[in-house]
Specification:
- There is one protein chain.
- With 221 residues, the chain is α/β, with parallel strands linked by helices.
- The chain is built from 7 helices and 5 strands; from the N terminus they run E-H-E-H-E-H-E-H-H-E-H-H.
- It has a 5-stranded parallel sheet, with helices on both faces.
- The longest helix has 15 residues, at 96-110.
């Protein structure tokens, strides 16, 4: 089995991507990042998904994006509860996916993997610029000029985003067909002290809409 690195947040999309990578025959090395996020309970669920899905390894890296702030997820800013709008919301974390994928890239060199997986989505999402095809293509190009393994000709990095053009309902149907236990995922940006979803933030609304359109009962912790 070829090794692959999976960016695993503990959310619905990344749990599905892990299942897709396993289906495609990869030995999955999962990386989660504790970056000071408000909803850090997701890290416990990432560990749960890695175990449930038989990941080869699961590591957690700690950084502190609260030092930069600028987001409702990393600063003392209220998470909006007014629904999904057209503008990039305040839950966007500046440069988050750039930083997280850079960590995945470094991890991939240590496990000799040339395949990286991310649960980015450009259909049912909140408009984040680092979930768009242009960003993902640019990062893949960067990976192939920024690493010892690539410039020495050991291989070419491929950034896989298998959910990129899927609706949330399609993602849920796919994951369900692959046996993903969505009850052990968290989509909420503002869970309560017990880790329960608020049901009102953008991410909760997109999740509920996805389950409804998929015709599947919503699974929550």
């Amino acid at each position: 089995m070829k090794p692959a690195v999976i960016l695993l947040s503990g959310g619905l999309d990344s749990a599905t991507v892990l299942a897709v990578a396993r289906r495609d025959g990869f030995a999955c090395h999962c990386l989660s990042v504790d970056y000071g996020q408000r909803h850090r309970v997701e890290l416990e669920l990432a560990a749960k998904q890695a175990k449930l899905q038989g990941a080869a390894e699961h590591r957690v890296v700690q950084i502190d994006l609260r030092a930069i702030g600028g987001s409702a997820l990393t600063a003392d800013i209220a998470v909006p509860k007014s629904g999904v709008g057209a503008d990039i919301p305040i839950t966007y974390v500046p440069a988050r996916n750039t930083v997280l994928l850079a960590l995945c890239l470094g991890y991939s060199e240590t496990v000799e993997a040339f395949d990286l997986f991310i649960g980015a989505n450009a259909v049912d999402y909140s408009g984040y610029p680092d979930c768009r095809p242009e960003f993902l293509s640019a990062f893949e190009s960067l990976a192939n000029v920024a690493t010892k393994a690539a410039v020495e000709g050991q291989g070419r990095y491929r950034l896989h985003a298998p959910l990129l053009h899927m609706t949330k309902a399609e993602i849920i149907r796919l994951g369900t067909s692959l046996g993903v236990e969505y009850v052990w995922t968290l989509s909420c940006y503002d869970p309560d002290a017990h880790g329960r979803a608020c049901g009102e933030c953008d991410s909760c609304r997109l999740r509920t809409k996805g389950f409804r359109e998929a015709g599947i009962s919503e699974a929550t912790v």
